[in-house]
Write a structure and sequence with these properties.
Order of helices and strands: HHEHEEEH
Number of domains: 1
Structural class: alpha+beta
Strand order of the largest sheet: 1-2
Distance between the termini: 32 Å
Largest sheet: 2 strands, parallel
């Protein structure tokens, strides 16, 4: 078995942090940027390419070709769902979304004192409408998928 961990494409928060150095105006669940869409398309094309080469991988024999993806799991965070959508389409495999896969902190915003406050995140209707090709978790409901306190260290 080969396991590839893929980070989401560039998000609006990534750009915000790079330009301002802080996340006080961050979005709890940002979109990917135009660059992020291009990154996702390039990633998907590479992973789907029959001649694609898993480079410098210690467990892949020299000369091995093609990634041969059979499963694609993703977070329900919008940036991960968008990135996974490109890969799923290019590789002709479903994106399987999970409620327990998310970035440290989860979906949150800062209160006036700068403390993270957990938010529920989008609900099942949002995901069914926006990501009809993704396989959604059975427990997804109208209350939002995250719906818990923000994670802290």
């Amino acid at each position: 078995m080969r396991l590839y961990l893929i980070r989401h494409a560039e998000s609006a928060n990534n750009v915000l942090y790079s330009s301002q150095g802080d996340l006080s105006e961050r979005s709890p669940d940002p979109e990917i940027t135009e660059i992020g869409h291009r990154q996702s398309a390039l990633l998907a094309a590479h992973l789907a390419d029959p001649a694609g080469e898993p480079r410098h991988h210690p467990f892949v024999a020299n000369g091995s070709r093609h990634y041969g993806l059979t499963h694609l799991y993703c977070s329900l965070m919008t940036r991960a769902m968008l990135t996974a959508g490109y890969v799923a389409e290019a590789c002709a495999i479903p994106a399987l979304a999970h409620t327990e896969m998310f970035e440290r902190g989860g979906i949150f915003e800062f209160d006036p004192a700068g403390r993270p406050i957990g938010l529920p995140g989008p609900d099942s209707a949002y995901f069914r409408e926006r990501f009809p090709g993704h396989h959604l978790p059975a427990g997804l409901n109208a209350h939002g998928w995250y719906d818990r306190p923000a994670e802290t260290d």
